[in-house]
Design brief:
Largest sheet: 6 strands, antiparallel
Strand content: 15-25%
Distance between the termini: 53 Å
Structural class: alpha+beta
CATH superfamily of the largest domain: HUPs
Radius of gyration: 27 Å
Number of helices: 33
Strand order of the largest sheet: 2-3-1-9-8-10
C-alpha cells in the first residue's frame, strides 16, 4: 500500500514551479499511505512522487523504477504475488529488480500490455515512456488499489486518492450532483448502475478496474482498453466433488499468496464463513493475530460470539475493538474526519467499525501491517443468493427470478419520467418483458452474468474502496483474499447446470472448509456486517449523531458552492426529523449520502486535514480461548445506549401518542407516531414497560418511578434507556 502523485504536461512544454509545488502538496496529503519512504522526481515535462509502505523489503524496492537509459519510469502501488514465477520465465538479465513490483517495469517493454493478464496480485500504477511521451495508467482487475486522474489546463493530475488530487490546489472540488442523483448505487435504487469510471466529482475519473489507459502527451489523445473481463468458459469436471476439491486447492493458494509479507499479519474476522475460512487457512501458513468488532450490531447478529467461537476452535487469541461507547460519543467533528479518511459519500457504519479496528491494529504491540479480509467471497460464491429475490423465495430459482427483476428495473430506471410512477409497486410487473427489452435495452440470456458484471462495479465502488481507505488511513494494507484472479475465474467457470448445487448460499466454500471447521461455523447463515437484523441498530451511529448535532451536520454539508445550491437546509431538517422518527430508519442511508457528498465538497475545498484521532475512545480487549458471558454482552449493549441521570426528568416525546385499547381498563397500548401505529405493547407480557409508559404521560425521574411503581431501580433504568434509544421518551431540559 503506497501513494502515487503526479503532474504531466500535454504538448511540448516544460514543468513550472506551480507543477512541482502541486506534486509536493499532493504527496504530503497522501503521506499516510507510505510513511516509510518518500521520493520526488522532477523531469522536463512531468513531476512524480511516491510514498512507500515497506511490506516486502528487498534492497532495491525503492521507487520510482528508472530504466538504465533513464527514458522509462514506473511507479506501482500494490503487490505482485507471482513475481518470482514471472522472473523465472525469462532469461537471466531481463528482470534485474528483486522487488515484486519491479517485474512490471522490467517486463512491460518486452511483453507489452499482454503482461497485465499474467499478473497475480493487486496493483495500480503508471509508466512513462519519455522518448515517445506516452503515459500509461494501469489497474488490477477488481480495483483493489485505487488510481484517479483529472485533466485541466493541459495538465494531467494523477493520484492514489481524491484528497491527493485536490491537494494540488489546481483542481476545484465540485460534486457532480447529476451523476450522483441518477446513479442507482448512490440512490439505493434497485437495478444496475451505468456509472463505470466517472466519480461523484466533476472532471475526476478513475482508472477502471482491469483497464489500461494510454495518453499521448504530445496531443492529449487518450486510448482506453480492457485487458480483463469475466470469462464464463465452462470447466470440464463431471462431479460436484471435483469442483469443490479444485476450489479448495485454489483457495489455499490464494491465502498463501496473500500472506506474502516481511511484516506481521492480522485478520479481520466477523464470524461468517468468509473471514473464518481465510483465518483458518492463513494460520496454517504463518503466525497471525485475530481481530473482531464488538458493537451493538455484532452482538445482535451473533457475529461477535461466532468470532470468539472460531478463535477458540483455532486455538488462537482474539482481540476485539469495543465500539459501543465510541458510537455514543461520535461527533460532527468525528464525522468530518470519517469522511476525509473514506473519501466517499456512500460511507456507512461498516466503514466506521473498520476504521476503529485499523486504528487499534496499528497501535497494537504486534505491529501488524497487513490485514487479511474476506471481501469478494459473497460476489462470486453466491453469497447473495438467499437475499436477492422477489417473493422471499430463498432458493436458487428465487435468486434468478430476483436477478431478472433487477434487469427489468434497470431498463425502467432509465426511461424518462417513468421511474416514480411505474418502477415502484406492482405496476412494473404489468409490462411485458419481451417488449420492454426489445424496445429499450438488451436482455441478458443469462441473468447471472449480468449480475456478476454489476457486482464487479459494486466491488470497486464500495468493498475495495472501503478496505483500502479504512486500512491506509492508519498506514496498513488490506488484502481481500477471495479476489485472487485464479480463484474468481474458477468460480465463474462453474457450468450453469452446477450453479444451483455449488453456488447457492456459498455451498462450494462451505463444503471446501467442512473438514477444517465445525458445522456451526462452516454452515453459519450469512448476516450483514453492520446492518444486522434491524436497520435501526445498524444506523444508530448516524441517527444519534443527527439528533444530537443536526445543525453542525447541515452546516458542514451545505457550506460548499454547489451544495449550497443543490441542498435545501429546511428540507434537510424535515428529512432528518422524519428519518429519526421512523422506527425502521429506512431513510437514514439515503439522507446520509446527500449530506456526505455535500460535506466532502466542504472538506476538500477548504483543504481540511484531521488534527487528531476520533474523540470516541474504542476499547480494545483480548480473549485467550475463554467463553464470553451473556452478562458481558449485555453490559456492552447498555454502554451503547443513551445515558441519563436518575434525577433527569423523563417524558413521552411530543411526536408520540399512546392509545389504550378499549375497554378503558385494557392492558394493551398502541404507540402512534406520525399517524401510524408503530408498536403494540401488552401489559400482560411486559407489565413494567406498560406501567412505565402509562406513568410517563406526566414527566417523572427514574427515582420517582422507583418509588411509585415499586420496581427495582436497575429495571427502571433499563426501560428508560431502551425508550430513549427508540425516541419514545425524551429528557426534559429546563
Amino acid at each position: 500500500m503506497c501513494g502515487i502523485s503526479g503532474v504531466f504536461l500535454i504538448g511540448v512544454r516544460s514543468t513550472e514551479e506551480r507543477d512541482r509545488t502541486a506534486v509536493e502538496q499532493m504527496s504530503r496529503a497522501q503521506s499516510v499511505r507510505g510513511p516509510d519512504e518518500s521520493t520526488i522526481l522532477h523531469r522536463d515535462f512531468y513531476s512524480l512522487a511516491f510514498n512507500r509502505l515497506t511490506l516486502f523489503a528487498p534492497s532495491d524496492g525503492s521507487q520510482p523504477f528508472v530504466s538504465k537509459d533513464g527514458r522509462r519510469v514506473t511507479v506501482i502501488n500494490g503487490e505482485i504475488y507471482n513475481f518470482r514465477e514471472l522472473r523465472a520465465n525469462f532469461p537471466s538479465g531481463y528482470v534485474t529488480g528483486k522487488s515484486d513490483c519491479a517485474v512490471i517495469h522490467d517486463l512491460l517493454p518486452i511483453v507489452g500490455d499482454a503482461l497485465f493478464k499474467q499478473l497475480r496480485g493487486m496493483y495500480a500504477g503508471l509508466n512513462i515512456d519519455e522518448g515517445n511521451r506516452v503515459l500509461t495508467l494501469i489497474r488490477d482487475p477488481f480495483g483493489i488499489k485505487p488510481l484517479f486522474y483529472s485533466i485541466r489546463n493541459n495538465r494531467i493530475y494523477v493520484a492514489s486518492e481524491l484528497k491527493g488530487l485536490f491537494a494540488s490546489k489546481e483542481l476545484i472540488c465540485r460534486p457532480d450532483w447529476s451523476v450522483a442523483l441518477t446513479d442507482a448505487h448512490f440512490s439505493l435504487v434497485s437495478g444496475y448502475s451505468d456509472n463505470r469510471s466517472q466519480t461523484y466529482f466533476s472532471d475526476v475519473r478513475e482508472v477502471p478496474p482491469g483497464h489500461v489507459i494510454k495518453i499521448d502527451l504530445n496531443t492529449g489523445e487518450i486510448n482506453e482498453s480492457r485487458y480483463w473481463k469475466p470469462d464464463f468458459t465452462e470447466a470440464l469436471f463431471n462431479h460436484e466433488s471435483d469442483y469443490i476439491e479444485a476450489y479448495r486447492v485454489l483457495l489455499e493458494q490464494a491465502v498463501e499468496r496473500s500472506c506474502m509479507s516481511d511484516m506481521p499479519l492480522a485478520a479481520q474476522i466477523s464470524g461468517g464463513i468468509d473471514s473464518v475460512a481465510v483465518t483458518a487457512l492463513a494460520s496454517r501458513v504463518r503466525d497471525i493475530s485475530l481481530w473482531t468488532s464488538l458493537s451493538p450490531t455484532s452482538i445482535e447478529t451473533g457475529d461477535f460470539a461466532a468470532s470468539v467461537a472460531a478463535a477458540d476452535h483455532l486455538k488462537l487469541p482474539i482481540s476485539w475493538v469495543d465500539s459501543c461507547a465510541a458510537e455514543r460519543e461520535f461527533s460532527a467533528g468525528d464525522w468530518g474526519m470519517f469522511l476525509w479518511m473514506t473519501e466517499t459519500p456512500i460511507s456507512d457504519p461498516g466503514h466506521y467499525y473498520r476504521l476503529l479496528m485499523s486504528r487499534a491494529i496499528a497501535m497494537h504491540p504486534t505491529q501488524a501491517k497487513v490485514i487479511l479480509s474476506g471481501q469478494g467471497s459473497d460476489e462470486f460464491n453466491g453469497g447473495y443468493s438467499t437475499t436477492v429475490n422477489t417473493t422471499n423465495d430463498r432458493t436458487w430459482d428465487g435468486f434468478i427470478r430476483g436477478l431478472e427483476g433487477q434487469q427489468r428495473r434497470t431498463v425502467l430506471n432509465y426511461l424518462p419520467g417513468v421511474y416514480s410512477d411505474i418502477n415502484r409497486g406492482a405496476t412494473a410487473n404489468c409490462i411485458n418483458s419481451e417488449w420492454l427489452f426489445d424496445l429499450f435495452g438488451e436482455r441478458s440470456e443469462d441473468p447471472y452474468r449480468a449480475y456478476i458484471d454489476r457486482k464487479l462495479y459494486d466491488l470497486n465502488l464500495y468493498n475495495c474502496w472501503c478496505d483500502d481507505r479504512t486500512s491506509s488511513a492508519y498506514s496498513l494494507e488490506s488484502r481481500p483474499v477471495f479476489l485472487d484472479i485464479d480463484l474468481v475465474e474458477f468460480s465463474l467457470s462453474i457450468p450453469k447446470r452446477f450453479r444451483r448445487q455449488l453456488l447457492h448460499d456459498k455451498r462450494i466454500l462451505r463444503e471446501a472448509m467442512q473438514q477444517m471447521l465445525p458445522g456451526e461455523l462452516a454452515y453459519r447463515p450469512k448476516v450483514p456486517f453492520y446492518a444486522g437484523a434491524r436497520q435501526s441498530t445498524g444506523y444508530a451511529l448516524f441517527t444519534n449523531l443527527l439528533e444530537r448535532e443536526e445543525s453542525q451536520i447541515i452546516e458542514l454539508a451545505t457550506a460548499g458552492v454547489t451544495a449550497s445550491q443543490v441542498l435545501s437546509r429546511d428540507g434537510l431538517r424535515r428529512g432528518i426529523r422524519r428519518a429519526i422518527e421512523d422506527p425502521k430508519r429506512d431513510g437514514i442511508a439515503r439522507l446520509m449520502r446527500l449530506l456526505s457528498l455535500g460535506a466532502l465538497e466542504t472538506l476538500f475545498s477548504d483543504g481540511w486535514t484531521p488534527e487528531s484521532v476520533f474523540a470516541g475512545s474504542a476499547v480494545v480487549g483480548q480473549l485467550d480461548n475463554a467463553p464470553v458471558s451473556d452478562d458481558f454482552l449485555d453490559d456492552r449493549i447498555k454502554d451503547s445506549k443513551p445515558r441519563f441521570k436518575d434525577g433527569d426528568l423523563i417524558a413521552i416525546d411530543k411526536n408520540v401518542h399512546l392509545l389504550r385499547d378499549l375497554p378503558e381498563n385494557s392492558t394493551n397500548l398502541s404507540l402512534v407516531r406520525g399517524g401510524i401505529i408503530q408498536y403494540s405493547i401488552s401489559g400482560d407480557s411486559n407489565p413494567l414497560l406498560f406501567t412505565v409508559l402509562t406513568r410517563l404521560k406526566r414527566p417523572a425521574t427514574a427515582e420517582q418511578l422507583e418509588n411509585e411503581l415499586g420496581a427495582p431501580l436497575d429495571q427502571i433504568r433499563d426501560q428508560i434507556s431502551e425508550l430513549l434509544h427508540y425516541r419514545v421518551v425524551k429528557i426534559v431540559r429546563n
